[in-house]
Amino acid sequence: MYKAAHFDGYHSIPGVWDEMYLQSSDIRAHYQKVIDYLSQESPDELGKKEELAQRLFMKQGITFTVYNSGEGIEKIFPFDIIPRIITGSEWDFVEKGIKQRLTALNLFLKDIYHNQFIIKDGIIPIDAIYSCPHFTREMYQVDVPYDIYVHIAGIDLIRDEEGTFYVLEDNLRTPSGVSYMLENREITKRLFPDLLPNCGVRSVTEYPNILYKNLQSLSPRRISNPTIVLLSPGIYNSAYFEHTTLARLMGVELVEGRDLVVNNQKVYMKTTTGLQQVDVIYRRVDDEYLDPLVFNPNSILGVAGIMGAYRKGNVAIVNAIGNGVADDKAIYIYVPDMIKYYLNEEPILKNVPTYRLNNPDEQKYVFDNINKMVVKKTNGSGGYGMLMGHAASQEEIDEYKLEILKQPRDFIAQPTISLSAAPCYIQGALRPRRIDLRPYALCGPDGIEIVPGGLTRVALKEGSLVVNSSQGGGSKDTWVLA
Amino acid sequence: MPEFKIQHVTRYTYDGAVRDSANQIILFPIVDIYQDVQKHDLHITGNPIVDTHVDYYGNEVGSFTYSVPHNQMIINSQLVVNTHHRPLPVDDIFPAQQWDNLAQLQYTVPYIDFLKHEYFDGLRELQVVVDAEKKEGDTPYQIALNFCQYVYKNFEYIKGVTTVESQLDEIWKLKAGVCQDFAHMLTEMLRLVNIPARYVSGYICPNQSGMRGEGATHAWAEAYIPNYGWLGLDPTNNCIANETHVRLAVGRNFLDCSPVKGVYKGSSGHHLQVAVSVGYQDHEPEPAIDQFVDRVTKPGPFAGNGNDASKNSYQRYMEMIQQQQQQQQ
Questions:
Q1: How far apart are the C-alpha atoms of B282 and B214, rounded to whole Å?
Q2: A142-162, pLDDT tens digit by residue?
């Protein structure tokens, strides 16, 4: 049907939702223009574009760091030149679903650190909350501006073989990756300049402006030009590239803990002209390291006394402290119940079925069916410390079971979901690879805004279901059509 | 109605000038019908503003900063406190009913936090002891008294063998320690039989000297007794903590109640003196004696420019890299 050689041999994976092909191997309509364009390009030309993309990433230093035995190895985030396309109606659905979910999660955090109605009414077992290591008793009765706890959320979505969207996990502490969403778009603009307007792709470039507007609105001092800083753990962090990018795009100071000092419950930044009071901190430092006086006393990255300034309302911290209780994977199970409880609505986005390993019946079920399961740590992230039952050896499984039995509360299991696939340009030809989607939602006093797009992560290894960049995943530009 | 005059002095002397110190103090006695504060003078070097808030456990917590370079910091807390004798539990309800009552509290706030026992290597051995001490038909009150006596009899009171950071493992192996360790062990035992137990920090103010724990902040435990409430048990002195014990704070463990802690920037070399003295009625407190410094949370030198003596520059650098590599979501 298409003459270009790179289309030869593209076979969608049986039993998997293919974003481009219908089952009859017809193209889905929203991919038509891209396919038309690609079929006019020679493999040579596409190869050049791929090379250009790699050079641009390298030149701009768009990297991430893989942690390995204590040494950080900085790598280029692999980028696939073929965009992932989402239709306007699919996006509307996703957007509504995330807004609903985030509204409920914010209400949950306010509730759990104040009246705890949801526990009293028996919707979430008290034990699930009080055994969560991120349930931060220091946040009890602390009021945060506009009752917003989750200012920035990265909600991970996947699609099953029917194309149904599921929430795989909520990232409500320090979600990362948004800079790749922005950079991927910039690169695509250079690779396919005409294609974006021709296809009616919606813009994502507003993201830093919306975030900046929200940060500004949180300033405790009612002044026209509040001091906003981005607090980074430092250059060895995997997301340091992102910290610098966001600080630059928003025009805010990039600081580390040692640049800040607390005096009389106020936070100050050390500048060449003396101390300058800080109003809003977009921090990318975990709670545990934020204040050595209150949390981990060995932290070198934090600011001693910052919790006191926060409690007094003299500084706004984004995201709020203590959010880990809401994105713990054992609490995730109850998010649909939260939506019903706080909003009196049916959840729009579905959860993936999840089993708690501290429940004896569920544990037995998981152990009996471990080949069909993915087991994860309840407070882990980045794809570290996870067991993919279908791919693991008996030895690995036995070892992992021992780990689980030590601290069953720290683990959950989910059936292996067959992620949807999208075409990727691999060694001169299009090949299907598994993908997920992480849209970024911004919550401010005016409500929740989600730029139309997100980060599509790709499992570049053939047959792999793990999309995490730390596990050899890459990414694609994500197009939402008008 | 005893009246106690308590003076609690904490003095940090640093080798060189330090700055940007941030501190947290939990030195404000709990006020309830058994205890009230007549007077509280708090003098801190540099006269910083002490901001107070009530924490999750209901304790009043003060925080202050002192940013200008300084070589010494003194926190001098002078209290006049009245205490009132609290009648002991009557304990005339059927044991089964009392245990039932406790079982119902298990999954409620705040008791859930005070029932979570710690895991340590000697847990199995302790479980055997606990099972043996718990007689069929005993009430929670009787068992609490038994356990208190068990700790008193089986652990030796020796200063200096443990530190503020000692865990149950260490205490269990040594079978020795000071009040903080005794209280820690007793809370663990009570929690193992489903009696909610809290850690208490405060002062012991006996009318005659010779009680253990004088001259420093003291620590003991509280057990939750049905139809009574929190009962103070002092395993260091094998007695019920009543009008001779002045309560400063309650929590799950020492960390929730730490009377004084701080972080500063600068040289790590420092000298710490802590003294608590108690006067009765018209008698002024005796001059404070310097002891028990190992029972106080040491202030931590902080950030890259601090000189943590236990690590060399390279090790500190590697630790910084390690901390920076926290996983972003």
A1: 19
A2: 999 999 999 999 999 999 999
Average pLDDT, chain B: 88
Non-local CB neighbours of B188 within 8 Å, separated by 6+ positions: B117, B118, B126, B168, B197
What is the least distance, in Å, from the CA of A366 to any CA of chain B? 26
Q: How far apart are CA B303 and CA A216, in angstroms?
A: 29
Q: Model's pTM, two decimal places?
A: 0.93
| Residue B286 confidence (pLDDT) above 70 | no
Q: pLDDT over 70 for what percent of chain B?
A: 88
Quickly tell me which residue has 């079920």 as its tokens. Answer: A365
Cα Rg, chain B, nearest whole Å:
21
Measured between beta carbons, which residues in chain B are less than 8 angstroms from residue A284?
Answer: 328
Q: Is A164 on the interface with B (CB under 8 A)?
A: no
| Range from A285-294, A424-433, B280-289, B307-316 that averages highest in pLDDT | A285-294
Q: What pLDDT does residue B297 have? A: 62
Are residues B302 and A130, on separate chains, in Cβ contact within 8 Å?
Answer: no
Q: Flag whether pLDDT at A310 surpasses 90.
A: yes
Q: What is the largest CA-CA distance in chain B?
A: 65
Domain with residues A89-182+201-343, CATH architecture: 3-Layer(aba) Sandwich (3.40)
The pLDDT value recorded for residue B296 is: 58
Residues 6+ apart with CB under 8 A from A61: A241
Cβ distance of B51 and A237 shorter than 8 Å:
no
Contacts of residue B116 in chain A, CB cutoff 8 Å? Answer: 130-131
Q: Nearest by CB to B56, which of A140, A233, A242? A: A140
A228-265 burial, b for 16+ CB within 10 Å, e for fewer?
A: bbbbbbbebbbbbbbbbbbbebbebbbbbbbbbbbbbb
- Confirm or reject contact between A258 and chain B (CB < 8 A): yes
Tokens found for residue A256: 């580390």
* Distance of residue B289 Cα from the nearest chain A Cα, in angstroms: 28
Tokens representing A300 are 């070198």
Q: What is the pLDDT of residues A163-183, one digit of tens each?
A: 999 999 999 999 999 999 999
Element housing A117 (H / E)? helix A117-120
Query: pLDDT tens, B144-197?
Result: 999 999 999 999 999 888 888 889 999 999 999 999 999 999 999 999 999 999
- A461 CA to chain B: closest CA distance, Å? 22
What is the C-alpha separation between A158 and A420, in angstroms, rounded?
7
Which chain B residues are closer than 8 Å to A285 by Cβ?
Answer: 326
Contact A140, A185 (CB under 8 A): no
Cβ-contact A477, A80 below 8 angstroms: no
* A416, amino acid identity: T
What does the alpha-carbon distance between residue A259 and residue B171 come to, in Å, rounded to a whole number?
41
Cβ-defined contact of A233 to B322 (cutoff 8 Å): no
CB pairs under 8 A between A and B: 134
| Angstrom distance (rounded) from CA A372 to CA A390 | 6
Q: Where are the domains positioned within chain A?
A: 89-182+201-343, 353-415
CATH tag, A353-415: 3.30.1490.270
Residues of B in contact with A264 (CB under 8 A): 48-49, 51, 64-65
Domains of chain B (ranges; CATH) run 3-83+258-301 (2.60.40.2250), 95-254 (3.10.620.30)
The conformation of residue B111, written as its DSSP 8-state character, comes to: G
Angle at B51 between CA B45 and CA B52, to 5 degrees: 120
**Pairwise CA distance, residues B297 & B309, whole Å:** 17
Q: How many helices (H) and strands (E) does chain B have?
A: 7, 15
pLDDT at A352 (0 to 100): 95
The strands making up A253-255's β-sheet, listed across from edge to edge, are A253-255, A228-231, A280-283, A316-318
